[in-house]
Structures are given as C-alpha cells and as structure tokens.
C-alpha cells in the first residue's frame, strides 16, 4: 500500500459525522474502500496504465448522506448494480465523466452534474484527470423531503432528471454547499462536526437537493401525485416526520390536526392514500430498511432495530417488511450495499 487511511475528526454516533480518507496505489484496496462506504456491488477496472493509479478519497458520512472527494489518477471503468437504497449525484471538479444509466448518456463536467435514481445499473467511464464530488443520499430521506417540499404525494423511486446545471441557479448553490460541508467535516474542531450543527447542515443538503433536481411535479398534478393536501393533513404529517419514533395514536394525531379522528382518517385516505397510522408504519419500515442497509451485520441486531422504531410484534413486522421490500430484514442486513 502506498499511503493509507486517514483518521477522521469524529467518530460515528447519534447525529455525529464520521470522516475517513484513503491514499493508495493498490486497486484492490481502493475497490474495497469504495464498496465499504458506498455500494457492495461496485466494480472498478483500470483501462489506463495501472501503474499510474493514485487513488485519493476523503469521505464524510452524516446521517442519510455520504459525501466524497474522489480521484483515481488513471482511467478506470466503474459499474454499479441497481442502487436500490439511495439516490446519487456526481459533480466533476476537474475533467469529465461519461455516464450511462437507464438508457441516458450524460457527459458530466464542472458545468453539469449527473443524477442517479435507485433503479437500473450504472456504467461510468472515468478518466484519470477527473476529480469529483460524490453525494449519496438515502432513498427515504430525499423522498420524504421532496414530498414535504411539494406538499404532494410522490412516487418511489422518483423520476428525477438525469442531470442538472452547475453554472447558474440552484445547482451552483447546492454544489458549493456540499463542497464546503465536506471541507468542514474533514477538518478538526469545526462547528460542522458538532451534532446540533451537523444536523442543520445535513438537512440543508437534503432539502437543497430536493429543490435542485428536475422532477415532473409542479403546481398542477401531473398524474403521478395527488392534489394539494389540506392544512389538517399537513399538520399531522409534519408531526409524524418530526417524531417518527413517538408512540402516536390516531387520537394524538387528530388533536395535532385540530379535527376529529374520523375526519382526519378520511382526509388521509383521500389525500395521502392511506390512514395516518398506516403512513407512520410505512415511514418506520423505510427507516428500518435504511438503517439495516448501512449497518454492520456483525454488530447489529434486527430485533433491536425493529424495537427502536416501534415494532413490538416481530412476526407482523417481518411480514410487513417482506411485503414492502421483497426481502427479509436479515437479508437486507446481510446483503447491505
């Protein structure tokens, strides 16, 4: 190994960021590093001179987001199986990158980012001159944020645009925010590594991306989303998302909304497509799935994760989980990507 892992300024914890870096000329080590922090299905093959490999990565994880500044130093071909659990954005800082995903070919460079939704394989031609920012956002986090920002129902996975502009408008602002956050998380003793401030940064990145990416949702429904929701439904949704672990009852939520239980349930079915408690259960299932997808199988217990999200009947939980994700919780934990 030429180089090595760089210790980060913070350790993983509730609300705390974690930073790790690697400098190496060993392709196997670079490949394992990227699989561990991003996706287990990731494949990297050199197409240039392997002797010129100078892999460099600084990666910070903060709740549902993972930010990385990455370069290889030699031409490589990268392939990734369907992301499933995450949306992903690549922002070239130098050079260019050719991307193929779901039939779309995007030539990304410092003027244009490439966006991936969690379905379909990815193929990348990554020249040695390309250094980029890699931004991974957990699927449930971005979908909840776009849902809240639009105040409309969104489908999953969301049909996002394949790229966005980095020169003008929100794309320029968002990419600058990501770059600044990664710089701050990579340095010791900054405000960004303090849990309370880190949470605010995290929310800004997710919300900023929700407002930056292209999507088919607008002021008028496009057939993919429901009508605008009444204020009573919005109040209940805000309460659920603010405290998803709380033991909400239908009466609690109706009190927050300021209407009777039956009125709230009817409004939810009309504007959300399900009852308030069904929505809460689906949200918690998504959170369990996200947590299991990023956890170490040797250090994580499925039952403990389920209990922490309010699932006290493990048999019903396992059935609901399999119905939603097509796999058991233990399979998700074992096959995390």
What is the CATH topology descriptor of the largest domain? Jelly Rolls
CATH class membership of the largest domain: Mainly Beta
**Mean of pLDDT:** 82
Q: Strand share of the residues? A: 15-25%
Question: What do we call the CATH homologous superfamily of the largest domain?
Answer: Jelly Rolls
E-strand count:
13
Strand order of the largest sheet: 1-2-4-5-12-7-10-13
The proportion of residues forming helix, as a percent range, comes to 25-40%
Which regions contain 5 or more consecutive residues with pLDDT less than 50?
1-15, 219-227
The second-level CATH architecture of the largest domain is: Sandwich
The number of helices is 11
Global shape: globular
- Name the structural class: alpha+beta
The domain count comes to 2
**Main beta sheet:** 8 strands, antiparallel
Radius of gyration: 21 Å
GO molecular function, one term: DNA-binding transcription factor activity
Protein name: AraC-type DNA-binding protein
Keywords: DNA-binding, Transcription, Transcription regulation
Pfam family, one: AraC_binding_2
Core attributes:
5-stranded antiparallel sheet, 8-stranded antiparallel sheet, 11 helices, 2 domains, alpha+beta, Jelly Rolls, globular, 337 residues, 39% helix, 13 strands, disordered N terminus, Arc Repressor Mutant, subunit A
Overview of the structural elements:
By secondary structure, this protein is of the alpha+beta class. The protein folds into 2 domains: 4-212, Jelly Rolls (Sandwich); 231-334, Arc Repressor Mutant, subunit A (Orthogonal Bundle), CATH 1.10.10.60. It is 39% helix and 22% strand. The chain contains 11 helices and 13 strands. The protein has helices at residues 27-37, 139-150, 169-185, 195-212, 231-242, 250-257, 261-271, 276-293, 302-308, 314-325, 329-334; strands at 4-6, 18-24, 43-46, 55-62, 65-71, 76-80, 86-94, 97-101, 104-108, 112-116, 122-126, 131-138, 163-165. An 8-stranded antiparallel β-sheet has the order 1-2-4-5-12-7-10-13, sandwiched between helices. α3 (169-185) packs antiparallel against α4. The longest helix has 18 residues, at 195-212. The protein is globular and about 70 Å long. The two termini are 25 Å apart. Residues 1-15 and 219-227 have low confidence and may be disordered.
């Amino acid at each position: 190994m030429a180089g090595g892992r760089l210790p980060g300024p913070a350790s993983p914890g509730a609300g705390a960021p974690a930073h790790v870096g690697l400098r190496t000329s060993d392709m196997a080590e670079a490949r394992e590093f990227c699989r561990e922090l991003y996706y287990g299905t990731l494949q990297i093959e050199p197409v240039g001179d392997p002797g010129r490999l100078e892999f460099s990565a600084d990666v910070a994880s903060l709740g549902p987001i993972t930010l990385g500044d990455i370069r290889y130093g030699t031409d490589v071909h990268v392939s990734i199986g369907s992301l499933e659990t995450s949306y992903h954005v690549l922002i070239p800082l130098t050079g260019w990158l050719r991307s193929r995903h779901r039939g779309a070919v995007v030539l990304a460079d410092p003027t244009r980012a490439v966006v991936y939704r969690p379905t379909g394989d990815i193929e990348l031609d990554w020249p040695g001159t390309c250094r980029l920012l890699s931004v991974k956002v957990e699927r449930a986090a971005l979908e909840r944020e776009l849902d809240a920002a639009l105040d409309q129902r969104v489908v999953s996975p969301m049909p996002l645009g394949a790229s966005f502009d980095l020169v003008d408008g929100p794309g320029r602002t968002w990419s600058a925010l990501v770059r600044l956050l990664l710089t701050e998380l990579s340095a010791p003793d900054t405000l960004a590594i303090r849990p309370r401030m880190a949470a605010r940064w995290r929310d800004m990145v997710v919300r900023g991306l929700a407002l930056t990416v292209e999507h088919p949702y607008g002021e008028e429904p496009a057939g993919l989303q429901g009508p605008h929701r009444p204020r009573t439904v919005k109040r209940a949704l805000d309460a659920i998302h603010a405290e998803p672990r709380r033991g909400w009852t239908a009466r609690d939520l109706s009190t927050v909304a300021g209407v009777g239980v039956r009125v709230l349930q009817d409004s939810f079915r009309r504007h959300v497509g399900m009852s308030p408690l069904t929505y809460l259960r689906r949200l918690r299932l998504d959170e369990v799935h996200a947590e299991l997808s990023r956890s170490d199988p040797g250090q994580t217990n499925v039952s403990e994760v389920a209990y922490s999200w309010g699932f006290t009947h493990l048999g019903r939980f396992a059935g609901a989980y399999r119905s939603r994700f097509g796999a058991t919780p233990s399979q998700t934990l074992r096959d995390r990507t």
